[in-house]
Amino acid sequence: MIPAAFEYVRADSVDAALSALTEYGDEAKLLAGGHSLLPLMKLRLAAPSVLVDVGRLDDLRYINDAGDYISIGALTRHRDLETSSLLASAAPLLAHAAGHVGDPQVRHRGTIGGSLAHADPASDLPAVALAMGATIVATGPNGTREIAASEFYTGFLESALAPDELLTEIRIPKLDTQGWSFQKFNRRAQDWAIVGVATVRANGSTGVGLVNMGSTPLLASAVMDAVKSGANAADAAALANEGTEAQSDINASSEYREHLARVLVRRSLEESGLS
Amino acid sequence: MKITVTVNGVERSGDVEPRTLLVHFLRDELDLTGTNIGCDTSSCGACTIHVEGQSVKSCTMLAAQADGLELTTIEGLANGDILHPMQRCFQENHGLQCGYCTPGMVMAAVSLLDENPNPSETDVRIGLEGNLCRCTGYHNIVKSVLACAAESNGASK
Q1: Are the C-beta atoms of residues A143 and A168 closer than 8 Å to each other?
Q2: Pairing of strands A166-173, A69-73
Q3: Of B19, B21, B57, which is closest to A6 when you measure between CB atoms?
Q4: Which positions 101-120 of B are in contact with A (Cβ < 8 Å)?
Q5: How many residue pairs bridge chain A and chain B with CB atoms within 8 Å of each other?
Q6: What ipTM did this prediction achieve?
Q7: Residue A8 and residue A218: Cα distance in Å, rounded?
Q8: DSSP state of B139
Q9: What is the pTM of this model?
Q10: Pairing of strands A50-53, A7-10
Q11: What is the per-residue pLDDT across A14-38, written as a single tens digit (0 to 9) for each?
Q12: Which CATH number fits domain B2-76: 1.10.10.200, 3.10.20.30, 3.20.20.220, 3.90.550.10?
């Protein structure tokens, strides 16, 4: 399978990437690791006329302790997240989940910025970003702005990024983590999650992100509210499908996905230490 | 567009369309047909090569993205007639049936041991989750990788 023809522009700096986005507008797509976009292009489900390759922007490949938060450059690869000692201690949920994206070959190429910006509800890391209350930094012609992960996802494969903006950094708050859990239910090892759940309990609150339970990555708000009000894991998990719009597809009916969400949220809350 | 890559230690250039996939560049332009195309959807791993020393599925990378980078394909593992230890372990342990997945399996296995020189059987099975063998010959593939790891560890002690 060969993608439809496109023009290829390699950006050697953030400024060059932004100039290309300004020049080509809606016609352009950003290419990072390519492990979400290229499969879509090969299936001709996406056919951008210009690809702006930001994959060589090594300045955006870092994991740093920034005081109150961990700053992660958008071009940081899943393998870097998986093996980071800083993340292992400061954000173990993210390091663990990154180690469950795709397979080793995918993790050698795929990037956190690409995964978050692609906005696929079936991806693992957006649910983690939601659960942890991450902040996404977008850089555009007029400078940078911060977007809360909870405000970032606007529709199927759509995010709050403007066409002339580049996702440059992800900020993960340093949480006093009491417990965390990542549940990924799939039929085969390397598959996308049929349903996934990312939970972190920290600083007196509980964040629960859902994978593949609607057209966007979702927060399980009803579950989080119930836990906050003192509900136990079983009672809170019973609300896991509230506010979701799970799709039916070849892997699962929407009813089955709702069932999985309730089961996996309960496991996730219990593994995080909630009784 | 013109690209230049270093494949198996040799600098090679070519003129490609931006949409040319790396696996097609290797096979059709450079005549390195050891890298197979299986599923063409980044599921099966038959097209696994090393990019800058790490396993990558070459069906899910543009040739343009590889410009200036160092690549290793299955043809680059052996030293003349002397097989790479992983190739020899696959041979000695009969780590193949039809052989179609083998180049990708070997390349993924070499990358796996680079990252984890002393894997358990479970580590090997999980580490090779991106490579499918449709003969279902996994048992001897895992045995081959474990044998190679044991041999390398023995040699370094």
Answers
A1: no
A2: antiparallel
A3: B19
A4: 108, 111-112, 115
A5: 82
A6: 0.96
A7: 34
A8: H
A9: 0.96
A10: parallel
A11: 999 999 999 998 899 999 999 999 9
A12: 3.10.20.30
